[in-house]
């Protein structure tokens, strides 16, 4: 199987803080990979490295054999941000947000053509948000907000999709819908990386998972990652007491 996301020895420092420390991992095409680690373990920095938004001080990142910034600018990477990272008061409708996934196809005039309208329509149907298309994005539930950004990635035709905590602030039904969508996108050939604190969601969601603590501690099946002795590597021994 071809490698979709490749990090080799990636080290990222913010001043004195070492956010990633020689992180090395390859994720194969068409896989759903969970990303697990405590707060501050470098998950967002790993996403930013894959999107080409931070340049490693050391090491290299490739996304489908391309430089990450080039892969992102050509629409190859979709991103579902953490809710805190979005200004939900912005006067954009659900359709507008999904349409931003088509900007790469539009040229500088950003005038939507029929193919763009069709791609947005189909993406909204797929995430079951057609009836909310004209709603301002702040007037959505937590799960609908996440699904709006998943639809943007679908409209974009992203080959790699990154989801940052997609289950936080989301009800059980939306969690099931997002899990189904992620699995479907991977069956269609996309590679999906999902950071989550919701460890119970991992076995249904992911084919494999990464345990991160600035470096990759373990890259294995969800079942292996969830073994208490492995979780203790990333979360400390108090995770055992909570079992
Ligand atoms: N722009 C920045 N400037 C300085 N330090 C930063 C910056 N961004 C992140 N850090 C630090 O780098 C480390 C890794 O942060 P990062 O956000 O990647 O972790 P995370 O696993 O995503 O955390 P969380 O689960 O809390 O979102 C943390 O110690 C954080 O405080």
From TrEMBL:
Similarity remark: Belongs to the ABC transporter superfamily.
Keywords: ATP-binding, Nucleotide-binding, Transport
Annotated SUPFAM superfamilies: P-loop containing nucleoside triphosphate hydrolases (SSF52540)
Coiled-coil residue windows: none
Organism, as annotated: Glutamicibacter bergerei
Protein name: Metal ABC transporter ATP-binding protein
UniProt keyword annotation of Transport present: yes
Domain of life, per lineage: Bacteria
Keyword Transport among UniProt keywords: yes
Domain called ABC transporter: residue spans: 5-239
GO molecular function, one term: ATP binding
InterPro entries in the cross-refs: AAA+_ATPase, ABC_transporter-like_ATP-bd, Metal_Ion_Import_ABC, P-loop_NTPase
